[in-house]
Amino acid sequence: MSFLSNQLGIRPDRLTQPxxxxxxxxxxxxxxxxxxxxxxxxxxxxxxxxxxxxRVDVRRSASSAELQERLIxxxxxxxxxxxxxxxxxxxxxxAHGATRGLHPTGNLPNAQQDILPADGFAKLVELCxxxxxxxxxxxxxxxxxxxARFTNVIAASGDIRVDVIVAWQRxxxxxxxxxxxxxxxxxxxxxxxxxxVVLHLKKDxxxxxx
Length: 210
Hints:
With 210 residues, the chain is α/β, with parallel strands linked by helices. 36% of the residues lie in helices and 21% in strands. Helix 2 runs parallel beside helix 6 (162-177) and helix 4 (118-128) crosses helix 5 (141-147).
């Protein structure tokens, strides 16, 4: 250490590597909306359950009320979400209702819209304090920007194919399971999948052994 600092003119404290916390992951919440039944939710679940065996709470075809209830009641360490997101305001769309908006689901005249505003989701994250939120869906940057000051967030920057995001998830969660930090796992996943995914890193960590 002193040799390097003398030779290169670098202060010794600059060569000190940051200490990365080891965080035990006791619970993972995976929430998907009805539309994702046809968009590969099974693959997400398999990846999560392989990485965090016995610790994954899966809520399929969920409503915004169910997401709120599980966040408040369970306070999961990791939140993995598959839901349409309005790129204009970051709202999570659980049901489109009888509208002509993003991806309308059917033509039922009495279909009810179910939307969680980005600010509402951000407040839930602030209160429940997960260490990582993964928005495994398209156009999620606006939503990510709302919660990045509270926790680590991963989000797609635009449209993303199912096979690409699934490959990314295998590499990312595989990295976590193999003892890599969030940052290193993210870098690995992006390198092997070429997915348009962004990390807002608040505090890096390594998953501790259960």
